[in-house]
Structures are given as C-alpha cells and as structure tokens.
Amino acid sequence: MTVAANVNQCLSTLKGIEAQLSSLALNTSVPEASKAFHETMLVIGEIKADLKKRKMQIEIEEPQYKN
Amino acid sequence: MNDYTHILVSSVLFVVTLFAITKIGGKKQLAELSFFEYVSGITIGSIAGEVIMGLDGNLFHGVLAIAIFGTFTYLHDVIGIKSKKVRDIMEGKATVIIKDGKVLEENLKKEKYTIDDLNSLLRQKNVFRTADVEFAVLEPKGDLSVLLKKELQPLTAKDLNLAVSPEKESYTVVMDGNVLNDQLTAAGKNRGWLDVELANLGVTLDNVFIAEVDSYGKLTIDVYDDQLQVPSPQPRKLLLAMLNKCQADLELFSLETESPDAKKMYNKNATKLQSAIQKIKPFLSE
To answer: A67 to chain B, minimum CA–CA distance in Å?
Structure first.
C-alpha cells in the first residue's frame, strides 16, 4: 500500500473511533465515564485535523496516488 | 360449628392476622435482628398454631394475644429509634471477643461461649486460625463479625492503586419475553433502542428470557433456546484495540516519512494519542 492509502486508512479508523466514543458518551449513565469519552473524542478530533492536512499535502506532492 | 369448619375458619383468620402483623412489623421482624423480635416471632407463631389446633373455642383470644405481641414489637421498634438506652437494654450490646489479635476470655465467659463455640463461629466465617483475626465482635443476635488482619484481607483495586471503570446498577429490561417499560425508562432507553439492539444480536423479543442493560448501555441477554449461541460483543475492548492500532500507525508514519515537518507532526500526535489512551483505558475495560 502507498503512503497515501495508509494515511487514508488511519483517517477512517480515527473517524470510526470518534463516532464510537460519541455514542458511548451518550449511552453511559456514569458521568465520569461520559466526560472521559467526550474528552478523548476531542483529542481524536484534533489528531484527525492534523492528519487531514498531511493527506492534502501528500496529494499535492504526489497527485498520482490521489484516490 | 364442627371441627373441620373450625380449623378452616381459624386458619384463614390467622393467615390474615399474621400477614397483617408481619407487614406492620416490617423487614426487621423477619430478619430477627434483635432478641425481642426473635422472641416475639416465636411466640406469635406458637400462639397461632395453638389456637388453630386447640379446639377450645374462642378464636379472638388468639387474635388479641397476637395483636398485643405485635403492638409490643412495634412500640419497641418506635421507642428504639428514639432512644439509644432502650436499644441497649432491649436488644443488648455487641461484645468484643477478640481485640488486637488476643482473645478476651472474660467476655467469652460472660456470654457463656466456650472456646469450641468461638472456633466454630470463626470457621463459619472461613477463618481457621484464631491468629488470623485482628478483631471480632459477638453481635446481639449471636453471630460473630470478624475483621481479619490487614495482610489477610482480600486484595482490592485500591490496594493495588489500580484505576477501575466506575459501574452503576444494571437494569433488567426484559423478563420472560415481556418488556419492562419502567425499567427501560430508568435505564434511560426506549423501545426503539431495545429493538435495534436485539436486531443487532439477531434474536426476536419472544425468544428473550432475560435482558439486562449495564451502565455503559450494553445489552446482555439470555435466550430460551440454550443451543443458540448469542454473540457477546465487547465494543469497549474493541475500541481500545482500535485506539492502540492508530497510535502504532502514527508512530510508523513518523518513521517512514522523510519530511522533517511531517515527522514532527506525527510524533506530536502519537504522544498525544498515547496519553489520551492512558487516561481512558480504565473506562474501556469490561
């Protein structure tokens, strides 16, 4: 797999994690847990933004791998 | 009135009376926590038995006696709540039998317990050596409460300084294939949610014997058909594995890339994710 594909895959895994954390935060009745899930979700969001930026860079540098 | 009708009438009458008395007496009466409740429990029972079988005539004498005993127990409970002195006299105080790991022979003698009795009581608490006990109290009801020495007490998460995920009570939302709507509401869920979860597990409602929701919103079920293998998803464990995978990916990217800027970005995010995983790990164990 190319670098671009790897980054893409990681990005979608992160998206999945974010969605699951969000659903856990809503579903649990333990406030501490809900808070922890929510905070982790925000961290994942930041990482996702960085990774997205990197993905764009890769696509500009090596357009042949764009998908 | 012949004997049979007498027995029938009196039995029904006393079932009703005893039911009323135990309802008034409450749970404490049934648990027989104190001397007084123990004695009145036995007496009420034997009065009822005596009057039902003794064919001497007046049923209401028996009912009166039971009512008197019931009233006394009730009064004793009410006064006991108000006054510590009354409690100590009526129910007796607990007696310390073992203190600082030493048996107090005087107290043992005062309660007329032999060393064999003490050993037997200790064994019922799974203690086979008197030397293991730090502190033991003989309760008014006659059973022994035992505090083991600290190093012999069961290990807890606190002893290990271990972070564990907090857990609240579970709710039973389905019983015998019937949805318990008030339990479902108490768990903060609704019928739509339940239908979706059951569909995810691949079972129909009328096949479910018990279904429980834990405080993380996970549904666990038991089905009538014991041959059926119900999947037991562990979404939180899976999530942790996914988080770890992403973290490893980020580290890998940082090793692979040749651009210094990207390397720095990947490293930063890998560390960030690592610390986030550390923080959330206790909540993801199930």
So the answer is: 19
Nearest beta carbon to residue A50 from set B239, B269, B283: B269
DSSP secondary structure string for all residues of B50-99? HHHH--SS-HHHHHHHHHHHHHHHHHHHHHHHH-HHHHHHHH---EEEEE
Distances (CA, A) of A9 to A14, B48, B244, B250, B266: 9, 78, 14, 11, 15
ipTM of the complex: 0.90
pLDDT tens for B15-36 read: 898 888 888 877 777 776 677 7
Whether B7 and B85 map to the same domain: the answer is yes
Give the DSSP letter of residue B154. Answer: P
Indicate whether B29 and B45 sit together in one domain: yes
CB-based contact A14 B246, cutoff 8 Å? yes
Residue contact B280–A36, C-beta within 8 A: yes
